[in-house]
Amino acid sequence: MQVVNNSYCKHFFFFFIGLIVVGCQENKKTVVTEKKKPNILFLAIDDLRPEIGAYGSEIAITPNIDKLASDGLLFNKAYCQQPICSPSRASLMTGARPETINVIENWTYFREANPDIVTLPQHFIKNGYEAVHTGKIFHKDKWSDVGKSWSREPAYDKMTIKKSNAPGGYALKENQEFSKKSTADVIAKYGKNAPRNGLGKGPAYEKADVPDSFYEDGYNAELAIATLKDMLQKNPDKPFFLGMGMKKPHLNWLAPEKYWDLYDPEKIQLATEPDGPKDGATMGLHPSFELRARYGIPKKGPINNEMARTLKHAYLACVSYIDAQVGLMINALEEAGVRDNTIIILWSDHGWHLGDMGIWGKATNYEIATRVPLIIWTPDMAKEVRGKKSDALVELVDMYPTLSELAGLDLPKHIEGQSFKPLLTNPNQTWKTAAFSQFPNPALREWAANPLSKGMRETYFGPLIEEVEGKIKEQQKDKWDREFFENRLMGYAMRTQQYRFIVWKDYTQPEKEPLFIELYDHNADPTETINIANDNPNLVSKLLLQFNKGWKGNMATVIK
């Protein structure tokens, strides 16, 4: 009987131990939770060329963006798909290229042309995110796509700062009056419908002793911070996609006085290459329509050095003003305790000529207008990568797949970019062989953006348009055709590691031979002063073959 009892006890003992082990394993299963998806802080800056300390600017004062770059990864060779607001933003936000989504100028709303396309924040919403934005992300506020791209409104109800509704956004009474006068003068001279084309503009810049929040970007930064806090309070366990869009340094250059005072005007250097490229396309540059529409800016002729220095000073003041708002937003992330699970990406929609090549504005196919700042920071970025710079060719259209992959999301089938996530671990690996940008004839576009209206020729821009046409006719001779040059001529820029290759052709008939070709060697001529296409026919043929492969034929080969 004793033997039986011992055996029974032994079996019971092992059975009991087994239950404990199984129980512990089951308990382990219950405590293992899926890692929370990373938040996204999406920092959009309008018209910002790489005039930033982190990019080597000797004058720009941008400590907050520089700090982000020093702990993240900076892309030296990032390019927009079209250097003007609406096409660039529509492209990067949909992950598709301008001609694919039929947005190649500023007046086409991407959603009307592509009703069912899934945008970047919309994709995150579909995967459990809360998405919200303040300021300029899409081209216009009325095109902000609330209800599809954004899951909620910003936290206006949590704001303790009142939004300024000053006329024209100006703080100074004299500038408000100048703005009204400019509009009135245009109406008196050209009729009541003229201002719809943007002719009656106020001053191009303003220096005023006001708080940051008086101007819209300072207000929108505070709104973004309030929205962040509101999201974390209401849905602390839900990942977020927060877009903060800054309109400066887009015209008009309005910035608080303290940011102007950061700069000594005497130390501001003007453009080193004030002339267009030798033998370049006469249709490749424009008469600075956007700037000339401002009150007090000459309607024709060159911008003198004194004014040019003031204008660049105004641009730099706005850059520093925006940098301060970026710093406030990143500090708010840290104070909220969520930076360690937030991906930060900072970008601009295109560059901007500050007298370079003799023009003021964006909207060209050259390096100065298509190259953009692009910086990314991730919580798990390897220590040896932090603070590095990558010379890999990347494009804004690549942001959609990159952020999606970093968040572990599958991609929609329409995506035309390539995730640059592999560069976050090896920034120097072999990557794309080319980046692509495009712009329709800048010389004969309204504001270098939309097809010329009849009204443009009837205003003070008429003589400028005639002057440009004269130059094009002189260069292109019997190829000149006004309807073709105004409405169907597209410049396509291919940027390789060494060359900028620009092909001018009829975008409605892509099979036709190019009208004109430009070629710039960045090893010998980084500011693109001489078109060497005519002297290098073999190289042109080689690059044309590469160009004809398109973006698909120049993607990086990723070894998995």
From TrEMBL:
One GO CC annotation: cytoplasm
Keywords: Calcium, Hydrolase, Metal-binding, Signal
A Pfam family it matches: Sulfatase
InterPro entries per the UniProt record, alphabetical: Alkaline_phosphatase_core_sf, IDS, Sulfatase_CS, Sulfatase_N
GO molecular function: iduronate-2-sulfatase activity; metal ion binding
Cofactor(s) required, per the database record: Ca(2+)
Keyword Protease belongs to the record: no
Domain of life: Bacteria
Annotated ranges, domain Sulfatase N-terminal: 38-408
Alphabetical list of SUPFAM superfamilies matching this protein: Alkaline phosphatase-like
Family as reported in the entry's similarity comment: Belongs to the sulfatase family.
PANTHER family: IDURONATE 2-SULFATASE
Protein name per its UniProtKB record: Arylsulfatase A-like enzyme
Organism phylogeny: Bacteria, Pseudomonadati, Bacteroidota, Flavobacteriia, Flavobacteriales
